[in-house]
């Protein structure tokens, strides 16, 4: 059996502020909170049910937001890609801007089908095409 991707860790200055952003952006919840560390993710069942699910196949990862002293200096080497499921890409970009995201320039040409954004602490992510009915079909 292979390993499973179970958590994504993101260093930041203010885990509580980023937890507010990411839970609203992804319709997630705060799973655990302690000073300097917040875990957010999809609402989940008991620990035993989660363990059984992880052992049987991939599950959505959670995100750990950990307080660190140093600031972000350069473009992220890895980033998240989001796909809206109930609205257009442009409507989702506007919603994320209202939550505190900003547009980010990482050298894109303007011809891309995605929009590069940054969370309130400058961590880049992309908003991809919409998967909503009427916007995406097979």
Give a written overview of the molecule.
- A four-stranded mixed β-sheet has the order 1-4-3-2, covered by helices on one side.
- It has helices at 15-26, 47-56, 89-99; strands at residues 7-12, 29-34, 37-41, 62-67, 80-82, 102-103, 115-118, 124-127.
- Helices cover 24% and strands 26% of the residues.
- The protein has two domains: 7-67, no CATH class; 80-127, no CATH class.
- The radius of gyration is 16 Å and the shape is globular.
- It has three helices and eight strands, in the order E-H-E-E-H-E-E-H-E-E-E.
- It has 138 residues and is α/β, with parallel strands linked by helices.
- The model has no long low-confidence stretch (mean pLDDT 90).
- The longest helix has 12 residues, at 15-26.
Give the helices and strands, then pairings.
Layout: E1 7-12, H1 15-26, E2 29-34, E3 37-41, H2 47-56, E4 62-67, E5 80-82, H3 89-99, E6 102-103, E7 115-118, E8 124-127
Parallel strand pairs: 1-4, 5-8
Antiparallel strand pairs: 2-3, 3-4, 6-7, 7-8
Summed up:
24% of the residues lie in helices and 26% in strands. With 138 residues, the protein is an alpha/beta fold.
Q: Based on DSSP secondary structure assignment, what is the total number of beta strands? A: 8
The percent of residues in helical segments reads: 10-25%
Give the strand content.
Answer: 25-35%
Helix count, per DSSP? Answer: 3
From the spread of the alpha carbons, the general shape counts as globular
Low-pLDDT parts are: none
Strand order of the largest sheet: 1-4-3-2
Mind describing the biggest β-sheet?
4 strands, mixed
- Please state the average pLDDT score: 90
How many structural domains?
2
The CA-CA distance between the termini, in Å, is: 31 Å
The ordered H/E elements are EHEEHEEHEEE
From the alpha-carbon coordinates, what is the Rg to the nearest angstrom?
16 Å
Based on secondary structure, the structural category is: alpha/beta
């Amino acid at each position: 059996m292979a390993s499973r991707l179970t958590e994504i860790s993101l260093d930041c200055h203010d885990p509580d502020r980023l937890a507010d952003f990411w839970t609203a952006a992804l319709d997630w919840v705060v799973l655990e909170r302690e000073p300097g560390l917040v875990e957010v993710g999809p609402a989940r069942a008991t620990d035993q049910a989660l363990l059984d699910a992880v052992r049987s196949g991939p599950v959505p990862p959670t995100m750990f937001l950990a307080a660190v002293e140093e600031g972000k200096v350069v473009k992220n080497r890895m980033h998240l890609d989001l796909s809206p499921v109930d609205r257009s890409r442009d409507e989702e970009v506007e919603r994320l801007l209202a939550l505190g995201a900003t547009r980010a320039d990482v050298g894109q040409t303007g011809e891309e089908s995605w929009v590069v954004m940054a969370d309130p602490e400058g961590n880049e992510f992309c908003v991809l095409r919409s998967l909503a009915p009427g916007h995406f079909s097979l």
